[in-house]
Amino acid sequence: YLFAEAPGYASGRSAPLSAQVGKDLDGIIIAMSKGATVKGRVTNSKGEPVSAARIELKPQMGPEGEGAGAFLAMFQNSMRTPSKTAVTDSEGQYQVENVSQGSFRLTASHPSYAAVELNQAIRVPNAGEFVAPDVALRVGGTLSGIVRDKEGKIAPQSRVEIRERGGFGGATFSAVSDAQGRYEIKNIRAGIYTIRCTEVRGEAAPLDLGALIMGAQGTQNEIVIGDGESMTFDVDA
Known about the structure:
Blueprint: E1 3-4, E2 12-13, E3 36-44, E4 54-59, H1 68-78, E5 84-87, E6 93-99, E7 102-109, E8 116-117, E9 122-124, E10 128-131, E11 135-137, E12 141-148, E13 159-164, E14 172-176, E15 182-188, E16 191-200, E17 203-204, H2 209-214, E18 222-225, E19 230-232, E20 235-236
Parallel strand pairs: 3-10, 3-11, 12-19, 12-20
Antiparallel strand pairs: 1-2, 3-6, 4-5, 4-7, 7-8, 7-9, 12-15, 13-14, 13-16, 16-17, 16-18
């Protein structure tokens, strides 16, 4: 494929190309269109509008649950299609213009809330307006604590990472401990997370893949975060 982008238009691409060594390709046509406009609204948990929230549309990486097929679909259907962004106004309204036809994941984020992604991808038509489901942002949780090394000493400049349970596709959040070994992670969306130290004093920590995949490290490395909850958890590096 040959791809093209231009201001005021949705991304376009040619028909499949077959290149041969020593031969020129000519007569390639890329038909550009204005695309569609995606509109929607962002609120808080009380239904009140949230202004200055950032909306992002990312191409859906193939059908869910199809493994290699999804990986291939990413290149066949979504390759070189850039993400589109917008910011909500004082009424919580937004619109994203010049969106290509296809399936997109919609996420909303704001410094005072936990980021949210719609459960299902939205299917955008090739033209006209598409009204996306409303997005409700919630006050995220906060996790803090102290990082210590294997000798029980304070470990500054150590990175703590939490990963949403359910595999490598879940949300991740991280923070680096300060000079007193304290770390704090804010705006965590509600869920169950595994927690570990990925860097100790600025150096990569040893990774036990067996423990990470099979959960052999025990339930002490699993935490539950609720909306608006503040939790303390000290980490042994």
